[in-house]
Amino acid sequence: RARLTLVVEGRRAGYHRARSHRLLEIEDCPIADPALSAHLGAARSWISALRVPLRRVSLAVAPGGVVLAAVTNTPPGARDADATEALLARSPTVRGAVLAEATGRGRLVVGDPRLRVTLEPGLDLEVPADVFTQVNPAANRLLVVSVLEHGAFAPGERVLDLYSGAGNFALPVARRGVRVRGVERDPVAAAAGRDNAARLGLDDVTFETAAVADAVGRMAPGTADAVILDPPRAGAADAIAALAALRSRRIVYVSCDPATLARDVRRLAAHGYRVARVQPIDLFPQTFHVESVTLLLLT
Length: 299
Hints:
7-stranded mixed β-sheet, 299 residues, Rossmann fold, single chain, alpha/beta, 9 helices, CATH 2.40.50.1070
């Protein structure tokens, strides 16, 4: 794993015990990149120095070390900036840090908190530490390959990428001469997507900051030849009716929860879609979680 996320209770940080809300502080994580375990002490030092109350803290592997991200209960302030700058000064392999209030009311960036994710040979995604990326980079590359294979996207096609994040799928697809329109609710992720597209010289990919259900609801039938969607664990229930109304010829549905996938596929089937192929991917080794890529075709 290239990222660890710790629950924070007061000045304590760790994992919840299985089937419990009891906090278990950890000294290392055997399935994580060793660089993350090596920086747990620095993360705890940071947590102790901050004034703002925290919900969770993440450590992610980045060029030259690690980056930190914290979700806070209130907007971070000047003393939090001072504490973060002090951490970076004494820990040069902590490259940067982000503190972001949970509802978007404040965001503090110190240093260079960008991490780099290789999506496929010759294509790296650069994102701030507080933007979602998959925890397992090698498995994510398999996921990208599976989406490309299932979608069979052709040059000149119009593809809608819903819950696009910073472009985990949109950028590899656009690289193949496809016109891609990403929709992402998180403005930081959408901005990162636009920055990556500009850096990579991909002119036929755009990123819209909007709730998916709202954005798709404004689109006319025939807007997209194909759709990729990668919703959170809760699925895409509020967007399924609008998605079906687009009448796209194929949908590639990436899911991390079989139950919500089944619910959404059932609703799509009622609108004339059929499941053509399903590919499970062990994106979270040594856990019961499974990712899947499902291709649905309009009949």
